[in-house]
């Protein structure tokens, strides 16, 4: 595999700004991807309009009637918008490329493409394995537009496994499960009054909200598998001699298992209940989990073992797979019933910052590794268990 060619392809892709809101940039990036993926033998390429966004997804299909079908998932948007100072790649040394999206996940897209090319070139059982590649433009902002594509892919029951090319952990580990995430707002209304009112008529919304938040902040200590972050808080007005009648905080909630969601919300509502019983105060929690948790099962275990065995055969450093709190499109695919292995991209770090980098030799390593596993799926050397 030509490592210099993979590096140069990655530089050309990462130098195209494709921030999630930069629609002309996303179009340019999608055209660049379509040109490369169209060269896979027998590929059909479709540009798919999405709900609620002018950005489009790209779908590439190869051998859609072969007995073993896999779904490849990647996003081509990044967190760096057109006005962000981080726009270009810099080669820090022979092994290290810094640049926007070089790990998350244009590097992953390079690995995916190179793996498929290698598989097509070297396997003698390609006829047994077909695949669909879904490249989407809105992962970094919650995948609200592409959600329907993931739901349909899972519901089709066509695929044995989803492969997601987010970057590997910095130590090389893959990801077999991810927490589900939700965005919630807690609002508190009280009663305005003069701070020195002799009848103490005011009901301080900030004090009541603070009481709730101190309790909410402790919930993850009591309830295993959940996370809660108080992201911001506002309330009151410019004058300190007024009892504030409104305060609001935004929360990031995460759960390891779907079953953790209801007890988590119930615990938060139980914290709000005594505050709501007081005269003149009302506390309300609104919001939703936008990504359900990605929980792993027997298919993921077999897939991980295939990756580990192939790494050993190729003489690559050993790795395992881990649970992580961050969500990805694997959450959406898993929620639709498709088992997934994630973090199949290159090694890198400092994602979502102007220090983001990728370890260049791992582009070819992870591509060869993936191609080897695909060959095992195609030849029947590794059989994936049926989707539960
Ligand atoms: Zn990503």
Question: What do you see in this structure?
Answer:
By secondary structure, the protein is of the alpha+beta class. The chain has two domains: about 5-180 and about 295-380, Zn peptidases (Aminopeptidase, 3-Layer(aba) Sandwich), CATH 3.40.630.10; about 180-290, Alpha-Beta Plaits, CATH 3.30.70.360. It is built from nine helices and 18 strands. The protein has helices at about 5-15, 25-35, 105-120, 145-155, 205-220, 260-275, 300-315, 330-335, 360-380; strands at about 45-50, 55-60, 70-75, 90-95, 95-100, 130-135, 160-165, 175-180, 180-190, 195, 225-235, 240-245, 245-255, 280-290, 320-325, 340, 350, 355-360. The strands form five sheets. A six-stranded mixed beta sheet has the order 1-2-6-3-7-16, with helices on both faces. A hairpin with a 2-residue loop joins strand 4 and strand 5. The longest helix has 19 residues, at about 360-380. The protein is elongated. Zinc ion binds near residues 75, 104, 105 and 328. Zinc ion binds near residues 105 and 166.
């Amino acid at each position: 595999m030509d490592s210099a060619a993979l590096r140069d392809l990655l530089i050309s892709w990462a130098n195209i700004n494709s921030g999630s809101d930069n629609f002309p940039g996303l179009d340019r990036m999608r055209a660049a991807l379509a040109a490369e993926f169209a060269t896979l033998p027998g590929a059909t390429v479709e540009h798919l309009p999405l709900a609620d966004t002018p950005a489009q997804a790209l779908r590439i299909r190869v051998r859609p009637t072969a007995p073993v079908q896999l779904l490849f998932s990647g996003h081509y948007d990044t967190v760096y918008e057109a006005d962000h100072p981080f726009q270009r790649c810099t080669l820090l040394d022979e092994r290290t490329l810094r640049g926007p999206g070089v790990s998350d996940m244009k590097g992953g897209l390079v690995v995916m493409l190179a793996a498929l090319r290698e598989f097509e070139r070297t396997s003698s059982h390609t006829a047994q394995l077909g695949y669909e590649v879904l490249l989407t433009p809105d992962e970094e902002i919650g995948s609200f537009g592409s959600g329907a594509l993931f739901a349909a892919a899972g519901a089709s029951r066509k695929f044995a496994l989803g492969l997601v090319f987010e970057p590997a952990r910095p130590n090389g580990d893959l990801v077999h499960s991810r927490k589900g995430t939700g965005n919630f707002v807690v609002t508190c209304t009280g009663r305005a009054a003069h701070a020195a009112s002799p009848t103490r008529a005011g009901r301080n919304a900030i004090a009541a909200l603070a009481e709730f938040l101190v309790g909410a902040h402790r919930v993850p200590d009591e309830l295993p598998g959940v996370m809660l972050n108080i992201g911001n808080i506002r309330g009151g007005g410019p004058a300190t001699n007024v009892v504030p009648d409104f305060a609001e905080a935004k929360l990031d909630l995460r759960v390891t298992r779907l079953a953790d969601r209801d007890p988590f919300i119930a615990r938060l509502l139980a914290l709000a209940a005594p505050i709501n019983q007081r005269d003149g105060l009302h506390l309300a929690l609104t919001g939703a989990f936008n990504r359900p948790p990605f929980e792993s099962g027997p298919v993921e275990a077999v897939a991980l073992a295939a990756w580990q065995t192939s790494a050993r055969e190729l003489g690559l450093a050993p790795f395992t797979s881990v649970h992580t709190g961050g969500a990805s499109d694997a959450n959406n695919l898993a929620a639709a019933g498709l088992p997934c292995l994630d973090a199949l991209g290159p090694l890198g770090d400092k994602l979502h910052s102007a220090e983001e980098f990728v370890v260049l030799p791992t582009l070819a390593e992870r591509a060869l590794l993936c191609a080897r596993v695909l060959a095992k799926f195609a030849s029947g050397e590794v059989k994936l268990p049926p989707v539960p």
